[in-house]
Structures are given as structure tokens and as C-alpha cells.
Amino acid sequence: MIKLIASDMDGTLLNDQMSVSEATITAIRKAQAKGIEFITATGRGISHAKISLDEADIHVPMILLNGAQVVNAKRETLFTVPISAEKTFKIMDTLDEAGIYYEIFTADHVYSENHPMRIEFVSQHLLEKAPGMTKKMAIAASSEHLSLIPVTYVENIRQLLIDKKEEVLKIIAFDKNGPEKLKAVSEKLEQIGDLALAASEVTNIEINHVDAQKGIALKHFAEQRGFTAEQVMAIGDNYNDVSMLTYAGTSFAMGNAAPGVKKIAKHITDTNEENGVATAIDRILSE
């Protein structure tokens, strides 16, 4: 019997409007009423993740930053898995040499050195999701969307990390050329060692400590609750979800999932625009 459901957010729990549908909210409530716990698992930091969840009045534990941070329903940190300062600076050097834009995540902040570049990447993402939108509309929507997400823009991230002694939990790098450019950089990053490289989009690399993965965090959380892998269900759509889809006894890939992810999951559900999470939950409850 399933006792814990873990769901990715972007492309899974959230529709293309970045919200949780009423059908999905209802399905989550039904599962909770039957004593099944629900946890989100995302590459987002807490300040970004809580926006959509608060709008849906969903207050549950969260696996954040691909597993580098786990918080309870009260959003108190249970544990973190940081990247060492030495490796952080090596990663930044590698990305700087390649001319790739990146952002640094700590438990409490998101740091960036380039505000215009951030808007450019978010607007490009919106254009891909809504082809009918003009570039001007996308930039305006991006600026509005980013105003909701606390980001600290600084001139020198390295110096700030040294001065504030903050632990780095995740680094995300973006390049519009996608795999064409990111593949070579990924190979250099892998040589640093003890890093987990994943992607939530074809145009990014998400860099964590090797032990900061959704599957590892989910396993740790489940065992703390006294659950076995067979009592866990996971739902996801992209390659940073693979570790938890592999761990969970029951796994669903979204209808919009990457082809490789669909091969790994045991089941396929509907797309995020068709309430795929609700479909998967209802299927499990009916069984």
C-alpha cells in the first residue's frame, strides 16, 4: 500500500501557467484523507517553490534544490547537503571560462551577477511554452514573474560567499544553445568529482553535491517516516527526477516527460496540462 507520494513540480505538479489545477488539488486532498503523505521534490529553492504551493493552499514537506535541502510542512530545515567552497569556486571558474550564465543557491538566497541575462532566459522559456506570445510580452511577463522571486544581484558572488560564509546548495547554469554547448562544460565539471549533474530543461545544467539528489533525499525522508521503497510513489517528467523514480516502488512519468524518463518509470500518466498527477493519484487510490 502506498503511504507516501512524491511529486516533481515544474512540468509535473504545475501546469504551463505555473499553477496547481483544482483537479490535482482535489486528488492530493483525497490521498491525504486516506492517510497518504504528500511531498514535493523540486530543483527550486524554497522562496520560488512556495509561491505556487501557497496559491494552492498546499502545505507539505518539500525536497528542494534537487535534494540539497529538505524542509518539513512548517518549512523548517531538516537537513542540507552543500557543495564545498573549494568545489564551488572550481565550478564557477569552469562556467566563467565557457562564458555561461549561472546562479548560486544557498538555503536562504539566490545570487546572480547579471539581471538582464536572467530576464532573457526566463522570457525565452515563456516563448517556448506559449509560441503565440511576442518577445515584448514575454519580457514583460518575465519581469513580473521574477519580481515575485527573491533574487540578490551582486557584483562579485565569490567575494560575497567568502564574506558571509554561506553554504552553496546548488548551482544552475543556462545556455540557449543547450546540449550543443552544455555537453562540453558538463564533461569538464564531471572531472571535478563528487558532483551530481542533472537538467530540468535542455538549456540548463543543475549542479549539486553527489549526495544531493531527489532519490537520495526521498529515501532518507521515507525511512525517517518508517516507510519502505515499496510504499513510496514518485511522479516526474525530467532527468533530475530519475533518481527518485528509480527508488520508488511505484513510479509515473508524465505524458510530457522526456523519452528517456518514460523508459525508466513503471507507468505513464497524462501530461501536466491534462492533470497527470491527479490521474496517477486517482489510479493508485482506485487500486
UniProtKB/TrEMBL annotation:
The keyword Hydrolase applies. Keywords: Hydrolase. PROSITE patterns: COF_1, COF_2. It holds the Pfam family Hydrolase_3. One of its GO terms (molecular function) is hydrolase activity. The keyword Cell wall biogenesis/degradation does not apply. This is Cof-type HAD-IIB family hydrolase.
